What we know:
Number of helices: 20
Strand content: 15-25%
Structural class: alpha/beta
Largest sheet: 4 strands, antiparallel
Number of strands: 25
Strand order of the largest sheet: 6-5-14-16
Helix content: 40-55%
Oligomer: single chain
Amino acid sequence: MSDQNPVPEKFLKPYNPQAIEGSIxxxxxxxxxxxxxxxxxxxxxxxxxxxxxxxxxxxxxAGHALFVTLEDIMVRFARxxxxxxxxxxxxxxxxxxxxxxxxKKLEKEGRSRFQMTREELYKEIWDFTQENxxxxxxxxxxxxxxxxxxxxxFTLDDRVIKTVYDTFKQLxxxxxxxxGARIVNWCPKHQTSLSNLETNAEERTDKFYYLxxxxxxxxxxxxETKFGDKYVVMHxxxxxxxxxxxxxxxxxxxxxxxxxxxxxKDEAIDMEFGTGVMTITPWHDSTxxxxxxxxxxxxxxxxxxxxxxxxIAGEFEGMxxxxxxxxxxEKLEGKGLLEKIxxxxxxxxxxxxxxxxLIEPQVRKQWFIKMMPLAEPAIEAIGKDKVRxxxxxxxxxxxxxxxxxxxxxxxxxxxxxxxxxxxxxxKCDAGFVDVEDTVTKCADCGGTVEKDxxxxxxxxxxxxxxxxxxxxxxxxxxxxxxxxxxxxxxHDILFFWVARMVMLGLYRTGEVPFKDVYLHGLVRDAKxxxxxxxxxxxxxxxxxxxxxxxxxxxxxxxxxxxxxxxxNLDPQKVSAYKKxxxxxxxxxxxxxxxxxxxxxxxxxxxxxxxxxxxxKIDELSKELTDxxxxxxxxxxxxxxxxxxxxxxxxxxxxxxxxVLQGDDERKKRSxxxxxxxLLTTSxxxxxPFMPFVTEEIWQSLPQKDADxxxxxxxxxx
RNA sequence: GGGCGUUUAGCUCAGUUGGCUAGAGCAACUCGUUUACACCGAGUAGGCCGGGGGUUCGAGUCCCUCAACGCCCACCA
Length: 717
């Protein structure tokens, strides 16, 4: 046997991912092919994915590994199919999230953000994120992300801020921005307001107190808010209280002495609940706030931003609400105003999604965006599949959200974020949008103005990410790649991010930001439990990648993972795909060993059984292409796995042994050519899923149609 | 209180528009040191596809209903 195509020695040992992944990634990077401007051959059709920018505040977790895998599969597939394929990476400053992470770090060091100036804090968090950002880029590389690093963008880069300001100004000019005293979700620990989406509803069992309030009995779970209550509210149709008229006043003895109360009739009252009568605390309760707004009632702050009682509480001033509660009840009991206590009252309370502390609603002046005018075009786009959410259940959920959308509070009282370009009057508290920084005095009262100290909700800028990253309005990338092909992200941020990108994208550019939406689920542990540090079941994708190889990790994340549903990451499953990588390695070894004497470039007379074998892989390729176009990666990956192992290796190779060792030269040559084609085709269709091992094998092929597999033509091209 | 989803082999899950004699990985069992691979091969066992009803020549797949579990949204003091 002549040896014109020698088999590289590396094939004599089992496949070792750790030894080759780094150098393969470097080779791709140096090739420049991650940047679509450098791709070979003329490419007319463009393809673009904007990466959901990972938060620059820690390591990548399993969810990141999943999105990298899915998006990398899509972009590699598009690249091989001859498209101008761009995957644009980013890093997110992640406002509140990062500030919370940093505060914890400060806490560990025995420091606190409240002892620092905003500037000091900002500077420190900036350095912290920059460090994390480069760390994170290395981790994305480890996972094989074939994204275009030359277009990398950070969410606090100047270009981002400029575009965000332009959008804010346009919204203001269109009368879609207002500053209003509204009740907001206030977290006393984090000292900021939060959007509704940033709170959790938690069921709790608390005491429910029945208190004598003049001639009435009122029920409350929060006696500490009742100091200023001077309105007593009941349903207009409640027969029990028909003798009391709206506007009646009466004197009564209350916590800290006699007060005058006024009767209010409002339909918000549930006659079945408690006694059907309640007093209201408009400053600290959203229902109460709305009742007060409807009737033009007074409201007064009882609890400060730290969760302590204000002077109105008299002797209780300065106490934390929970400490005060029992003492207040004691006093009420002493005065004979406590009627009874229901010990097993269950209700839902709002908690901060980060610290789980009780949300203390507060009335504050905040910037809001009117959402209905923005939501309407988005409802149409999603309803008519101009933005096609490929999982029908999420389409329904998104439409439901948009149809019931409420105005969006975009003010955050934190340092880490994009400052709101606005001025506030120091005298009358009026607010003015001021992107050009030209407002010097109050237009209402002539008073002096100061910069608004608040920052934007981070999702306000993130919501503009697709068109910002592509350089709207003038950038060439915007013209080439917008609307982008697909947005792939976690279903948990459908409202936070996806819906807002659709609304703001349509608002700003008049076009949808992406044509398709692929939502993946939560990555859970092997048994389906949610990963958490406290449970100790967190699986680090980077460790898994080091142990089994990135290709195996990727297969473990994608095989059987139906779009939109949660996925269990099982190291045993990943281990199985490590074996598969080795299987492929040995298939390559076999084929290369058996074709050392094959003369490439000469005519082959194929035997009919070989034509049949090749027809089958062509069929498979077509089927896979269809699956991939329809985002059925979970099926495509499994089919390739099955083909390579149980068809190519178990059957075709086994059946080939006698042919290759036989003395029919024509048949042998035909089979050699066939096996070689099966190998190259398998490498191609497997490459989006297992990029490293396939590229490593490709580099050792004596005959190929592209220097690198990453740009090799897809079999059906 | 609304909405969405899940229920298929011991475990974790696939099963795309109804054609399935229901699959995969892991686990289990039997055999096998055949020069691609022991990170292996050949084979075996294991499921009234949550319950009930319906549509259909045909249902894991469509419709109704019940049950269990899960998720999301929501201002009951």
